[in-house]
Amino acid sequence: MRVALIQHAFKKNKKDTVEFTCKMIKEAKEKKAEVVALQELHQDRYFCINENVNNFDLANSWEDDIKFWSNVAKENNVVLITSLFEKRSSGLYHNTAVIFEKDGTVAGKYRKMHIPDDPGFYEKFYFTPGDTGFEPIETSVGKLGVLVCWDQWYPEAARIMALKGAEILIYPTAIGWFDGDSKEERQRQKEAWITIQRAHAVANGLPVISINRVGKEKDDMSMLDGIRFWGNSFIAGPQGEILASLSSEEEKVLIYDIDMKRCENVRRIWPFLRDRRIDNYEGILKRFID
Amino acid sequence: MRVALIQHAFKKNKKDTVEFTCKMIKEAKEKKAEVVALQELHQDRYFCINENVNNFDLANSWEDDIKFWSNVAKENNVVLITSLFEKRSSGLYHNTAVIFEKDGTVAGKYRKMHIPDDPGFYEKFYFTPGDTGFEPIETSVGKLGVLVCWDQWYPEAARIMALKGAEILIYPTAIGWFDGDSKEERQRQKEAWITIQRAHAVANGLPVISINRVGKEKDDMSMLDGIRFWGNSFIAGPQGEILASLSSEEEKVLIYDIDMKRCENVRRIWPFLRDRRIDNYEGILKRFID
User: Fold this and answer.
1) Residues from chain A contacting residue B188 (CB–CB below 8 Å)
2) Looking at CA atoms only, how far is residue B6 from chain A in angstroms?
């Protein structure tokens, strides 16, 4: 499976950003990618950096956005993983991955299930927690376990996708540093982010793809200094081994041929699914066991 | 919390191995360790390398072993994590961690829940899967989430320990390479093993300790060339950051002061427990969802 990850910065506005992305998708297609994965909320700036009711206007184009990216998938004849701002109803919004088939039809949608809320990442203000559950999306290239950003910290999400037959996990992401943090803290954060996603590959014996944006984005309400998105998009194999990765600054199309047959071999030598103690996991369904 | 990990090889026999371990525990005590963690089945060779009914004799000393290590804990005034071969009844054996309080009393036991079975690691022949569940053990230094080896590949075990209030995870382990595997494969295996345990630290915001043996041990039935145990015992902090580690060959007491207050701070910036979608995790209780 030849995949392409597209890591880029927000440009001046949505129009310029989308144009840039489309140019990169064309490049991915020229290099014969079958699957193209975009970063979280790739059309625009990361607007959750503050809480501003006017930002809900950004979801007014939801229906048009779907039409637009459907065309892009079709024109390039690729399976396309997009990440959009869904207006479901007045006052009801989701952070939604829309997956398009090569012919432009919608293969499936995933509404981000785990919603963060930290200074600079005010997502609970904008996004209603998803109600799609953790369902892999059937496509012509396989069953894709598409999850979004904060989901990546939850082994439960990865596991359920794997148990439902996902052949690969794909995480569109928007995560970054505050410049005020020490070099050591920034290193720890980036490493933790890579480590836990590699671990999902290990625990479930399948490849993991993560796509993150780059560039510093300012807070237009000036409550924060802004976020420096750390890129480092990567592809890991079923033993968690890094197969390909990008730096914390470059804008690039990362192409890689994933050997999907290796998963079968890895699961034979490490048959973790065989030995799960499902008779003793009910505690997982509790908030805390006190 | 000053912890000591003791990484060593099997000596000629049980007597020599235990003597060596006791010398190292004394060294840990001299360096003011409060908690001493030993590797999996540390008293003897890793006998699961083949299936031999005579090896069940090694569990005949179970009651005496408990008395012995109780004395060691008391003499050194340390919380001691041991890993023993439990004879529970005729034909019923467990791979059991016994945790001793500083005064030599048994603080708790944990029977290995996930049992592997791979060529050279024939544990399903020897060990009945544990029935203790995933219960942290209350001690004078805190609640210890003791798990054993194969458990380390299961995010569920780590999560349940954390939800039950474990303040640290401790994994006595016996894992190694076959010399016949390529350098790249050995590297991937070791990295996967470290990565998934670091990820348990990240996912749950607590430190993780792993103690593995070193040295090559032969198969006395000569079905295999033997196992080269890869050591690499380590301590990771609550962001998965490696705080201290050993090489793949050295025999050593690794001492480290873990800052337990940092866990609180890390869980404040990364409040993963807050956002778990327990309403959507029931799939975890299934073998597979087909």
Assistant:
1) 239-241
2) 25
For A139-145, what is the mean pLDDT?
98
Which residue in B159, B165, B278 is closest to A290 by CB distance?
A: B165
Question: Which residues in chain A are contacts of B199 at CB distance < 8 A?
Answer: 155, 195-196, 198-200
On chain B, the residues whose CB falls within 8 A of the CB of A116 are: 275
Cα radius of gyration (chain A):
18
In the predicted structure, residue A223 carries a pLDDT above the cut 90 = no
- Total CB pairs under 8 A between chain A and B: 166
Pairwise CA distance, residues A7 & A231, whole Å: 7
pLDDT in tens, B41-85: 999 999 999 999 999 999 999 999 999 999 999 999 999 999 999
Residue A131 has pLDDT above 90, yes or no: yes
Q: What pLDDT, in 10s, does the model give residues A227-242?
A: 999 999 999 999 999 9
Residues 150-189 of A with CB under 8 A from B: 150, 153-157, 159-160, 163-165, 188-189
Architecture of domain A2-275: 4-Layer Sandwich (3.60)
- The verdict on whether A112 is a catalytic residue reads yes
Contacts of B280 in chain A (CB under 8 A): 113, 133-134, 160
Q: Is B112 a catalytic residue?
A: yes
A23-35 mean pLDDT: 98
Write down the pLDDT at residue A75.
Answer: 98
